[in-house]
Amino acid sequence: MVTHHKGLKTCKLVFYLFILVYACAIFYLSYSVTIWEDEAYTLNTTSLSLGKVITESYHFEAQPPVYFLLCALWRLINPEIYFARLLSAIFIAFSAFIIYKISRLFTSKNLSRWVIIVFLLNPFTVWASIEIRLYALVVFLSAISLYYFIQYLLTLDKKHLFNLLLASLIGLYVQYFFAFIIIAYVIIYLLYRGIKPTIIFILYFIPVLILFMPNLYMMGSNISNAQSQGVGYTLLQRLTVVLNSFQNVLFGINVIVDKTTLRWLVRILFIVSFAYPIMLMNRQKTKESETLKKAVTIFVLVILVVLTIYTTVVLLTGIKFNNRYLAIVYPVIMLLFLMFDFYNSKIRTIAFSGITVYFIALLVLKYSVPVKTYDYESLAGFLKSIENPNEPIIFNSRTNSAPFEYYYTGKNQIVKIPDSMRFSHEGFQVFLRDTNDVKSILENTLTTKQSVIIVNDNMIGYPENLKLNLQQLSEYLTKNYTITYDTAFYGRSNRLSLYIRRLENKPRTVDLVTF
Questions:
Q1: What is the Cα–Cα distance from 337 to 352, expressed in whole angstroms?
Q2: What distance in Å separates the CA atoms of residue 319 and residue 388, rounded to the nearest whole number?
Q3: 8 Å CB contact between 82 and 192
Q4: Which of 216, 206, 215 is nearest to 186 (CA)?
Q5: What are the two backbone dihedrals, phi and then psi, of residue 357, each rounded to the nearest 5 degrees?
Q6: Nearest-CA neighbor of 282 among 271, 293, 274?
């Protein structure tokens, strides 16, 4: 008995040591990982007055404003990049606490701690915790809404219902998709409580719907602009994209470099690890197992309803779906690990330990190079080392110039072409249409400057509305300007490069006249 007590005390100590090390790692990543364009947009939006934050949230970010308002207020304390990321880390910490509380409703402290460990180590969690976007807040609101929904479903205590209504209202003002998980709750309530109680349950949501209605004015255009304009976005691709996102979120399979063998091995191992406890679940008939079985059934139903809604919406509208949209159901997905409680203690420890090692390996792979897309931080230092005084730096894309500006400390002017940005069918920028666009911009700049530096990525426009490609740009610059510097810059990135050129006007040729 004494040995058992010491073992529990050791497990508790190891768990809290893990939390401490994890917090330090997140703090380090918040400092070291470079921002990308979406985070730069958040920083730009949340640097404005609160009234303009609301306007930009709807018109540019295409989201309701609650997260951006919270982030703007948070950044009044400290405007630095790492501090903005800490807000997301705090939301993830709260999410872990709520997921632990949900787990404790159905299982032991030891297994609940294992669930928190795999939740925190999942690459999606780490990404959300160091992303200056709304997804960590969505995860938190999803977790807390699930907690109060389960509590109300089990106890019918009105205080849990009112907390659920509040969480739902805030969630809808953070992301439109939060409506899908509310629909899932209604369907599950119908299955467990019947028609009449469900009608009453729905009536309680009417104030939430009324308070959400101002969003409807902007929601239509926001969804329309998110639709893919690519002719290659087939129905089959639309059908599979949501399911692929589910496995990416649960397995972290998108982080794996290998596209075939290793990914299939991971799929098989995860499927077996979840399929076996489902078999055990149906065999066990104790009171505790029946309670956990009910919980797992609720989780599976929530996930299936949300995935079905997402698949239907993607099929009908053609919106460009992304892994991050599963944030609304992500805590529910991670709670599927409660099924491991049907294993015996030895197999359970082996399974959780294996998944822990796997997730740590994925994180090392993902963050060994602390660059999300292009290495804008190294680029800023490099350009500062080679630039001449009074030499403008021209970016062909605002998606590149936006994060670059947060690292550049030089004194030269940053010119963004084309000079337009909005949330539209074309994306966040108006693309260069042809070489005439480039000509007018460079001619206007080089009339007053001896040289310019031009920076572009390898895709002048998105593939679905490509207007000027890299080869056309390179041919035009080579023909019409003297290129005194030309390099592909990777920085710390091992996969994405930016092209840097120094341009000068070609010397004019003078015809000799014979007298």
A1: 9
A2: 45
A3: no
A4: 206
A5: -60, -40
A6: 293
> Rounded to an integer, what distance in angstroms lies between the CA atom of residue 487 and that of residue 454?
11
Query: Using CA atoms, how far apart are residues 347 and 353, in angstroms rounded to an integer?
Result: 10
The DSSP code sequence of 291-322 is HHHHHHHHHHHHHHHHHHHHHHHHHHH-B---
Pairing of the two strands 414-416 and 393-395: parallel
DSSP 392-414: -EEES-HHHHHHHTTT---SSPE
pLDDT digits (tens, 9 = 90+) for 346-384: 999 999 999 999 999 999 999 999 999 899 999 999 999
d(CA 176, CA 37): 22
pLDDT in tens, 185-196: 999 999 999 999
What is the DSSP code (8-state) at residue 157? -
pLDDT score recorded for residue 422: 56
pLDDT digits (tens, 9 = 90+) for 228-250: 445 456 777 777 888 889 999 99
The list of the chain residues with pLDDT below 50 reads: 1, 228-229, 231, 424-427, 462-466, 512-515
Distance (Å) of CA 13 to CA 85, 94, 355, 436: 28, 20, 20, 66
What's the pLDDT at 150?
A: 96
- Residue carrying the six token digits 């197999």: 347
Tokens of 375: 């290495």
Question: Which token pair is 490?
Answer: 């990777």
Supply the pLDDT for residue 463: 45
What would the pLDDT profile of 9-50 be if each residue is shown by its tens digit?
778 888 999 999 999 999 999 999 999 999 999 999 999 999
User: Residue 82 contacts by C-beta under 8 Å, 6 or more apart in sequence?
Assistant: 27, 30, 31
Closest CA to 277 of 338, 353, 349, 332: 338
Question: Position of tokens 């255009």?
Answer: 221
In whole angstroms, what separates CA 336 from the centre of its chain?
Answer: 21
Q: What share of the chain is helix, strand, coil (3-state, %, to 5)?
A: 65, 5, 25
Measured CA to CA, the distance from residue 479 to residue 476 in angstroms comes to: 5
The DSSP element (H or E) to which 333 belongs, if any, is: helix 330-334
Q: Does the bond joining 418 to the residue before it have cis omega, within 30 degrees of 0?
A: yes
Evaluate whether 377 touches 407 at the Cβ level (below 8 Å): yes
pLDDT of residue 465: 46
